Amino acid sequence: MISEQEIVLKADILSEALPFMKRYAGKTVVVKYGGHAMGDTALGARFARDVVLLKQIGVNVVVVHGGGPQIGQMLERLKIKSSFIDGLRVTDKETVDIVEMVLAGSINKEIVGLINAAGGRAIGLSGKDGGLIQAKKLTRTKRDPESNIEQVLDLGFVGEPTAVNAEVLSLLTKADFIPVVAPTGLGDEGETYNINADTSAGAVAAALKATRLLMLTDIAGVMDQDKKVMPEITVAQARAMIADGTIYGGMIPKIETCLDAVENGVEAAVILDGRKAHAILVELFISSGAGTLISKK
Ligand SMILES: Nc1ncnc2c1ncn2[C@@H]1O[C@H](COP(=O)(O)OP(=O)(O)O)[C@@H](O)[C@H]1O
Ligand SMILES: CC(=O)N[C@@H](CCC(=O)OP(=O)(O)O)C(=O)O
Questions:
Q1: What's phi and psi for 188, nearest 5 deg?
Q2: Ligand 2 pocket: which of 73, 194, 218, 252 to mutate (most atoms <8 Å of CB)?
Q3: Please, which residues have CB within 8 angstroms of residue 282's CB and are 6 or more apart in sequence?
């Protein structure tokens, strides 16, 4: 039996959340569901319920997922060695086949299954379906500190988005489906590109001019020098924190994606811990929010 105290608490939360629910109804929210945020099936089921609730409130929700750790496990099982340059997986032909199998196959279908089991209408797509994410080979260069000569680094089938076919997503959202996108891209010759999931989510959010890009990861938000989570950071602060090393590693491309997204028509991006209970709902519907908000200021 639910106690009177709990009813009062729930009513308080609901009355706080209602204005926010009205604000986001009819708006687009892109959720990047990172491999580290996925956890076990119970966590996945809770994520799925939150996504379905968003849709029921009238939010046009689009999920773009990752799966880096899961790709790593599969490559290990198959005894295929993998390495990273600047946080990007060097992807030869053999590896890109596994990447596509894991991302567009098992992970995509697991998320679609969980959302549908929670009462939603999810449709799984990879960036190749409907030409959703068109891509080209990513070129990276690095200056050799000794010779000062710029070297071209070959990352194989790692791609960068050149265009996003937003119409595919708009059609599905209008028909009340929840698109679930695997971050693989389609090259000019029909080849598959492995695209970082943050980058893909940013490109999708920008193409849809989303109100929010929520980056679900395994850390509470962006931390300052004293390891305190910052509720908000400006574009200038983020650039300074990258320059002085407070933001490093995998957080750099994540922040860069958020900065690009807000420069390209996304109202704000948020980095938050996707393993926390109802992280998405708390961020959108409770005034204190969750994680770190990045907006164009
Ligand atoms: N200033 C910072 N605040 C928070 N995390 C940071 C910061 N700088 C670097 N990081 C690192 O970035 C990681 C998140 O990036 P990453 O592991 O690539 O996420 P994901 O796999 O979810 O895309 C954190 O776990 C943390 O180790
Ligand atoms: C080029 C590149 O590195 N692609 C990533 C794609 C998956 C991803 O980004 O997943 P997370 O968000 O879970 O890290 C990879 O192969 O791991």
A1: -60, -30
A2: 194
A3: 276, 288, 289, 290
Is there a binding annotation on residue 274?
A: no
- Residue of the nearest CA to atom 5 in ligand 2? 196
What ipTM, to 2 d.p.? 0.95
**Nearest CA among 156, 147, 136, 14 for reference residue 84:** 156
- Of 34, 184, 179, the closest CA to residue 98 belongs to 184
Lining residues, ligand 1, CB within 6 Å: 34-37, 66, 68, 198, 217-219, 222-223, 246-251, 254
- Of 136, 256, 252, the residue nearest 206 (C-alpha): 256
The domains located in the chain, with CATH, are: 26-295 (3.40.1160.10)
Find the 246 Cα to ligand 2 centroid distance in Å.
23
pLDDT digits (tens, 9 = 90+) for 171-204: 999 999 999 999 999 999 999 999 999 999 999 9
pLDDT in tens, 218-273: 999 999 999 999 999 998 899 999 999 999 988 888 999 999 999 999 999 999 99
Atom 6 in ligand 2: which residue has the minimum CA distance?
Answer: 196
Expressed in angstroms and rounded, the spacing between residue 218 Cα and the centre of ligand 1 is 8
- Give the pLDDT score at 200: 97
CB 220 within 8 A of CB 291: yes
Residue 219, pLDDT score: 93
CB 195 within 8 A of CB 160: yes
**Structural contact between residues 32 and 213, judged by C-beta atoms closer than 8 angstroms:** yes
